[in-house]
Amino acid sequence: MLGTDALLSLGASVLLMVCVLVGVAFLTLLERKVLGYVQIRKGPNKVGIWGIPQPFADAIKLFTKEQTYPTVSNYIPYYISPIFSLFLALVVWAVFPLWVGMYNFNLGLLFFLSCTSMGVYTVMMAGWASNSNYALLGGLRAVAQTISYEVSLALILLSFVFLVESYHVLDFSKYQEGIWFVCLALPLAMMWFASCLAETNRTPFDFAEGESELVSGFNVEYSSGGFALIFLAEYASILFMSMLFVILFLGSSIYTFSFYIKLVSLAFMFIWVRGTLPRFRYDKLMFLAWKSYLPAALNYLLFFGGLLVLGV
């Protein structure tokens, strides 16, 4: 019986990973199409009907190209870091709140925080092991940025953990049947979204790959398969953050169609922001994290902690 359960869990996990990777493929297509129309031009439209198979053509091209290795690179960390990066981006989906066939995490949100913290090491390894000054600078900037915004992410999350009194992701859906948390704490939702943009190295916080000054940042020495894995990890993280935002703030069961409409809308907002906003200045980014979001998140945390103590 236990063996059957383990096999079912494994099969469900593999199916979920495949679905995530297909979703990532079409998210890249959506991004290229939307950015095309934002900039008054056409997106990919040559491969197949309306360019729909374009992501698969790109994947085949990237993975069949010759892999290059800088002769002065530290080979093993250089090789492993993109694989580990994608592994972390996929394994965090284990907290996806399915009732059956998956892993029932009572501490799902702690698992999410642990996985995002581990993601820092992959960026640092990739930047350092390339043995390039540009890659190292890009990696250091990405690490400083990610660590800074993880603080505000954790504190915002803790505020709602005080309200729900659980780390289980499913409980957030149950508690929002009457009213969404975005209505109770709109500023926290906006701060969470901005922190997600910074956490996933997206515009306007894409300093890790500031093309003009860092020549693509920590992944500058990567090509073909390694670059594709880093790219996949970034977009898998965007989809995951969109999913988590919907569960935490726009509570709905994953068995409803509206859940997926909200998820796609959130992913679209990531793209919309990229097409609209210019890059921040780096000191402004750090100021925003430590001088704006941290005090605001702490105040909300004290407020919700007070409600918990009073038993409201």
Automatic annotation (TrEMBL):
Catalytic activity: a ubiquinone + NADH + 5 H(+)(in) = a ubiquinol + NAD(+) + 4 H(+)(out)
Subcellular location(s) per record: Mitochondrion inner membrane
Main location: mitochondrion
GO biological process, one term: aerobic respiration
Keywords, sorted A to Z: Membrane, Mitochondrion, Mitochondrion inner membrane, NAD, Transmembrane, Transmembrane helix, Transport, Ubiquinone
GO cellular component, one term: mitochondrial inner membrane
EC id: 7.1.1.2
Membrane topology: Multi-pass membrane protein
GO terms, molecular function: NADH dehydrogenase (ubiquinone) activity; NADH dehydrogenase activity
Transmembrane spans: 6-30, 75-99, 105-126, 147-167, 179-198, 227-248, 254-273, 293-311
InterPro entries reported in the protein's UniProt record: NADH_UbQ_OxRdtase_su1/FPO, NADH_UbQ_OxRdtase_su1_CS
One Pfam family hit: NADHdh
UniProt-listed PANTHER family: NADH DEHYDROGENASE SUBUNIT 1, NADH-UBIQUINONE OXIDOREDUCTASE CHAIN 1
Similarity comment: family membership: Belongs to the complex I subunit 1 family.
UniProt function note: Core subunit of the mitochondrial membrane respiratory chain NADH dehydrogenase (Complex I) that is believed to belong to the minimal assembly required for catalysis. Complex I functions in the transfer of electrons from NADH to the respiratory chain. The immediate electron acceptor for the enzyme is believed to be ubiquinone.
Designated name of the protein: NADH-ubiquinone oxidoreductase chain 1
Gene: ND1
